[in-house]
Amino acid sequence: MTSHTLVLDQARLNAAKTSLEDGAVTPEFGPWREDIIQLLNDSLATELVCVLRYKRHHFMAKGLASPAIAEEFLVHANEEQAHADRIAQRIVQLGGEPDFNPDTLSQRSHADYDAHNDLSTMIRVNLVAERVAIDAYSQMIELIGTKDPTTRRLIEGILEQEQEHADELADWLDK
To answer: Which of 4, 11, 98, 107 could join 91 in a cystine, given CB atoms 3.0 to 4.6 angstroms apart?
Structure first.
């Protein structure tokens, strides 16, 4: 019977002692860092576009059910902003630069900005955007896999909240 032991790779540990200016990015991070930063920057753009859409809808919501829905839009806007902040922080940890360029936000975003004033349409377009975010984050989780466990966990946490948003918006459609 063969005995297996779990032992750390000392050569990798020694390599981690070099290139201190790279911060959290160790030599063993792999060739995927730039791709992950790009995925995160596109997600950052998506989150920022969603913040803007939800903020507009918060202020423009009118109708009988509008106070409660407008409040929900504001909650979602704040949560999307928190997602954007966490994503930007992770980009910096990976040695990248978060791209907040307003000229390219909507082009890089997975979700669309929407300027409708009809409350029912607002709910629908926000639900569509949440479903797009859910799919984009699900794909990112699959692509990242074990290449970057920290980013994967970050995206998994954001995905969970996006799913909650979609459920809440779907409930409003039924009312």
So the answer is: 98
